[in-house]
# Entry
Amino acid sequence: MNAKASKTHVTCIEPAYYEAITEAIRKEAVQILKDETVVGVVGYLPGRRKGTASPALVTTAEEAGKLIFSPACVNNLSVYLTKAKKGVLKKGKVGIVAKGCDMRALAGLITESQLQREELFIIGVVCPGVYGFGAERTGTLTEANIARKCRECSVHLPDGADVAAGTHTELADLTPEEAEEMARIEAMPQAERWAFWKEHFSRCIRCMACRQVCPFCYCEQCLCDKNRPQAVESSPRPAGNMAWHLVRAMHLAGRCGGCAECERVCPMDIPLNLLNRRMAKELKELYDFEAGLNPVEKGPLNQYKEDDDQSFIK
Amino acid sequence: MSRIGVFVCHCGENISRTVDVEQVAKAAGEIPGVAYSCDYKYMCSDPGQTLLKKAVAEHKLDGVLVAACSPRMHEKTFRKAAEAAGLNPYLCEMANIREHCSWVHEDRGMATAKAKDIVKLMVERVRKGKSLAPITVPVTKRALVIGGGIAGIQAALDIADAGHKVVLVERDPSIGGHMAQLSETFPTLDCSQCIMTPKMVDVANHPNITLFTYSEIEKVEGYIGNFQVTVKHKARSVDEKKCTGCGVCMTKCPKKKIPNEFDQGHGMRPAIYVPFPQAVPNTPVIDRENCTMFQSGKCGVCAKVCGPGAVDYEQKDTFTVEDVGAIVVATGFKLYTIDRKPEGSPIQGYGEFGYGTIPDIIDGMTFERLASASGPTGGKILRPSDGKEPKQVVFIQCVGSRAREKGISYCSKVCCMYTAKHTMLYHHKVHDGQAYVFFMDARTPGKGYDEFWRRAVEEEEAVYIRGMVSRMYQRGDKIVVMGSDIQVGTQVEIEADLVVLATAVQPQDGADLLAQKLGISYDKYNFYSEAHAKLKPVECATAGIYLAGACQGPKDIPDTVSQASAAAAKVMTLFAKDQLERDPVVAKVNEKYCVGCFACKKVCAYGAIEEKEIRDRQGNLVKKVAYVNPGVCGGCGTCQATCPSKSIELDGYTDEQIMAMIEAL
Amino acid sequence: MHAETKQHDFEPKIVAFVCTWCTYAGADLAGTSRMQYPSNVRVLKFPCTGRIDPVFILRAFQKGADGVLVSGCHPGDCHYMAGNFHARRRFAAFRALLSFVGVDLNRLQFSWVSAAEGGKWVDVVTELTERVRTMGPMPEFKELEHEEQWSTFAGASADKVLNSPELKEAYDSIG
# Structure
């Protein structure tokens, strides 16, 4: 597959494009299961309702033949490789279907010793984008139903994957809504910014879905669940909510791969990815760090340079 | 419920003058969990400590807070007392209501309120404190001494004489330092080299001393008792093992007109050289920058004439790693040699003095070389420009020193005495000459010092003028010195043949870089900081590193030797035990919750964190977690702030303690 | 005899997180030099700025601090070699986050104060105290502490949250 050969800009992406990816994934998954390269493949199966997809671990060639890829494949599957009780890795090498944003998470997890590259067979998807939350699921991806994060995607190509499925295609002329929203908030007076976030965070019900879905929230005990000492109030009250989201943004700074799963699963529609994007922007500006597709030795907040900016220090 | 005792100290009147100590004690007594509180005039005194011990027993206290001075002052004192009373010393803390309160605030009401708050915070710290047991680590009984001047030599000899191995590292080709350059020494006027060179030879011959000259410290790792120091041995281009020190190479070297650093650039040396005839080791080095062979590839005379074949143009810098248990830093000083303000330096120059442009304006060390029998003039006082004997010499004290507006506010300590010595040496050698001295004050504390100074003034006819020099310039072959005499209240103008500046004593170049390698602190001038100005004058804040000589601040020879011997004694104290007890403020891993992301390992500057495998009974790998080597951990806590789940925790500064303190704000 | 300092309407609560080797010692030096500065600051000692977790700053604001100071050794002077370098990056990021959520960074000061800089300690503390004094109390986090989440329903934003007729009905029935 030569994904880099051409790049096409279109106004809509037809189901046929996704079907081609589906075929490629199935072929690869069946092959690696047959020749026992892997013990299982984490991918997507069709959901019960039409037009949906659900994450699945397939272990036979037969099941692998049912894997799909569609704009409904929103989940970041890397989370299934790390969270304590879902440790499929114990049994051997695992294949995983990964979009560019998911691959950034995989790279981060390798950087943080949670995964080893040798344990993985990455079936990379040349992903043109997925559905946004609540968008109309017509089978065709357009400017109208693409996810917000995909509008600014810079990782359509899964460089570093073992194989790549798909040919490079992008929707043309997407407005960077997230960047615009971030700029809008930054331009607000300080008190308004506070009011904006206070309103959002006050709605938080502390269901912890954001934590549950995040590939980087793999701690066995979250700081925010600790009670000796209780650093962050655990009941859903405004003070604790603010602290929780600030602590989470801080813990993800320099690690988050931008899959925006936290924002997708949030039942209260808190724009969580904005916080993560803001931190990523800061770390890019200060230390020229960007979460990439390949593992690095140390994240930006685990290293330093002697001449780092200190204009804010007296 | 805890049973904490709070003891509020008056510190004579130092605290009670601005803080209502009775009220502080009363308020402390009302904090839940405080079982006893009182105030006392001097807690650190013997009766004060007895009071504390008695209270611990009588009130069954399980934690103690002494509200007094800075813990940097008396934490050890009170922890010892608490220990004597049967408490774990780490359950005793201090609330700093003197340096951070009574001494910096005048308003009694506000100061008292602040003192109460400080006590309240610290009570929480005590409440959440844990008993800690000291960590023992083995001690490598081998010392490193950095710098081969009189300080380093004295320290090395003392440690070696006590039976311990010593590695002495010197940057220059020979040991000896500045003392080897001096002519005669105050206040006895005995010849510096006569007392110095035997010590140098002792170093070379001592079975316990390994001497590395022309070598520098590259890297320092480890901690007290267990340092690994990488030493860079600069290429001498002469094989030390083969060289017999016959000196033929030096006499045959065609390039002989290189200014000799040892003579402050006033004598000449060849490209292959020893800095001075009594150098130890007596092995030459090739100055590659000035050697024809290295610069153009043609010559090779020294190799041809060398009988044992010791000259090696191919020699490279080599490195060795030395395991040592203690380090003595004795890197000495340099003289202020600035004729104009260097770029980026806070120190202003003395452009108006013409130093560096008028050849007959020299510094004190150059005068030492002129007066030295082994110097470029054979001990005759002859001025650099034309070799004539100067008949009028002006000495100027405090050039650079005590000049806040110029950037150095400290006193260089040795100049008053050596200038007096210079006038005497001059008078002894040039009987018809006249010495003038411009001075601000004459500072002569020291045994026999004032008598010596008086002799210079009263018997040796030096004219002392109290006042400052404003300007100097060349007129014919004279230097016109313009200054003031504030005692007479008049302007003075002297036509001098030679001017000697007593320039300030400064730390060596690169002192800050070495400090950073060693992890020791230094002041704004780059002098190394002792752990305590009075009570720990030779220790660094970094355990296992000690200071000797002028690298810590300007010092004369007797002071330097005393400090060097003191540093040696400290090293011997450390070496007296096989095991060393370390402060147990180190990080520990909660293996149950550690998920092995190793962010802690990435930020640890000590390399104290290792990966540890957790296996089940069948030997299957369950997970990898972080493990802290308590002997290596420095106790900074960066790992804990970095750990997302706080599965690594610094004893003594736990999140629980800190959060409790914040809650009490 | 005690000089009476002039009374202010507002005495801000200033919390200083300092490292023990440089800034704590610098503050000690200010004491031994008998320098004077506002008494508002409460000092919490850490071994190193590297130990200081952003959570502590957050908690201090929540617990009523009107201004927070974080101070340690100058770059290159860290007793632990690199703790302050790590802290520098951590706090650069944390500042950006706080600013983004609308915290006025004038209330959060970072400084390097060495053991030799008693005067700088006085300057830094005085400047922060006086700046925060003119800014007035910090309302943001304190307000949050006293707010219940559901109280927002009674306010203007209730319509936003009760975005379905069923929810609205249920809420009204609590009444």
About this structure: Residues 46 and 53 of chain A are 4 Å apart (CA to CA). The mean pLDDT of chain A is 91. Chain A has two domains: 8-171, 177-289.
